[in-house]
Design goal:
Elements: H1 2-23, E1 26-31, H2 35-53, E2 56-61, H3 64-77, E3 83-87, H4 88-96, H5 109-113, E4 125-126, E5 129-130, E6 133-138, E7 140-145, H6 146-152, H7 160-171, E8 177-179, H8 186-196, H9 215-229, H10 239-245, E9 250-254, H11 257-264, E10 272-275, E11 280-281, E12 287-288, E13 294-300, H12 307-317, H13 320-334, H14 356-364, H15 375-392, H16 396-422
Parallel strand pairs: 1-2, 1-3, 8-9
Antiparallel strand pairs: 3-13, 4-5, 6-13, 7-9, 7-10, 11-12
Helix pairs in contact: 2-13, 8-9, 9-16, 10-11, 15-16
Length: 425
């Protein structure tokens, strides 16, 4: 009788285990993290997230450049992932098309967004909807060769006046200054900080038209074009080569170049430094050093049948603990210095401790481009205006006003195209 009871108990335990395995939730994540970082992500999910939650995650590598179209096709075909990694400028139009979940409907969303710089959120929001959570981030700051600056009697370049003065002195010695935004809309990326530092934006507040023709934005555009026409900032530059050689000892670039300079130019270690993005003096005497950049974001696809499990994964991916471990493991692998948007993670970022305060301030002053319907396409008109002025000697005010008109036309066309979606928000 006892042996029979033991046998029945054993069978029951086996059945429970089998049912548990069969019923374990499994969700799919599309990410661009491949190679070593992909392995880090895979191991962390298995050993941390899945171990704690019981939720299995299938990871699919999709190049970030292809994700937008592939996601739409998969969504329409009923084969979309549950969670997807995107560039921030892709999230809003996908979200407005109902392809992504409005995360403001999810529990504890304020707890997560409170850990982020609020100036990052307009890039992934539309009206009252939030379509993504910020992940890896690249802000912009200034790199300069301390040895060359010392020889020329130049101080740390903190303002745009400093940049102009340094550029003039460098040009007199056949050396260059370079200002570059790496990402979609490279000219808009360079213009935005000058606009933000004037307390303005390139769109009207309601997102229905361009604001490029405002007094502040015309002044910002004139300043940008003058930097290249009058002060001869380089239009193109092989940064790693010229920074090491000293040909271009002053460069305004994104934060990932720090790691690049360390790896490619060990011979100049100790001969260069960083400072915050150049600032504009305000009427009260303060210095506005708002910069811009780009970021990867996590979104939930609206077709998911496992919303609760997908949200748990997104909460984990946005946590300080994940950011700290992922960036540290990436650094241990091949000295990559990554930053995530969770401001609490900066203290433990794989970055020189004496520069952590600078990194925290750079994140706190990073403002992303506001998302408007059609804005991504409208950016090209700023590129056209810039080229007309710098390459063809057009009048900057005329050129930017034309860009404002064309941008508004583009936004209005897109608003009509998206009107049936927007009404449902």
């Amino acid at each position: 009788m006892v042996s029979r009871k033991k046998w029945l108990l054993s069978i029951s335990l086996v059945l429970i285990l089998i049912c548990g395995v069969a019923s374990a939730e499994k969700i799919t994540l599309w990410t661009w993290y491949g190679a070593e970082l992909g392995e880090v992500l895979k191991d962390m999910i298995k050993n941390d997230f899945t171990a704690k939650t019981g939720i299995d995650v299938e990871i699919v590598l999709v190049p970030v450049e292809d994700i937008n179209n592939k996601l739409l096709l998969a969504y329409l075909g009923g084969d979309a992932p549950d969670v997807v990694e995107l560039y921030s400028n892709q999230a809003v139009e996908l979200g407005v098309r109902n392809a992504l979940v409005n995360l403001n409907t999810m529990p504890k969303i304020k707890n997560i967004t409170s850990q982020m710089n609020p100036m990052l959120l307009p890039a992934i929001s539309y009206k009252s909807a939030l379509f993504a959570l910020p992940g890896e981030i690249n802000w912009t700051w200034t790199y300069y060769r301390t040895d060359i600056f010392k020889d020329l009697g130049l101080g740390v370049p903190e303002t745009w006046d400093d940049i102009r003065a340094a550029s003039t002195k460098l040009r007199a010695r056949n050396m260059d200054t370079y200002y570059y935004y790496q990402g979609d809309g490279p000219i808009v990326g360079k213009l935005l900080p000058l606009v933000f530092q004037r307390k303005s934006d390139i769109y009207k507040n309601d997102g229905t038209a361009s604001n490029l023709d405002s007094i502040e934005n015309i002044a910002a555009f004139k300043e940008l074009t003058a930097l290249h026409k009058e002060y001869k900032l380089a239009l193109d530059d092989p940064s790693f080569t010229t920074f090491a050689s000293g040909q271009t000892p002053l460069q305004i670039l994104q934060n990932w170049y720090y790691h690049g300079f360390e790896i490619t130019s060990p011979q100049i270690n100790g001969k260069w430094d960083i400072t915050l993005f150049p600032g504009t003096k305000q009427k009260d005497g303060s210095l506005d050093r708002t910069n811009t950049g780009k970021m990867l974001v996590w979104s939930m696809v609206s077709s998911t049948k496992k919303k609760e499990a997908a949200w748990k994964l997104m909460e984990w991916l946005s946590s300080t603990d994940f950011s700290n471990k992922f960036t540290q493991m990436g650094y241990e692998l091949h000295k990559t210095r990554l930053f995530f948007a969770n401001k609490n993670s900066i203290d433990n970022a794989p970055f020189p401790k004496e520069k952590i305060g600078l990194a925290k301030e750079a994140l706190a002053t990073c403002r992303m481009q506001t998302a408007v319907i059609g804005g991504h396409v409208a950016n090209r008109y700023v590129d056209f205006a810039f080229n007309k002025v710098v390459l063809q000697n057009a009048d900057p005010e005329v050129a930017i006003k034309q860009a404002a008109k064309e941008s508004t036309d583009e936004i209005q066309r897109k608003l009509k195209e998206f009107s049936r979606y927007i009404k449902s928000l």
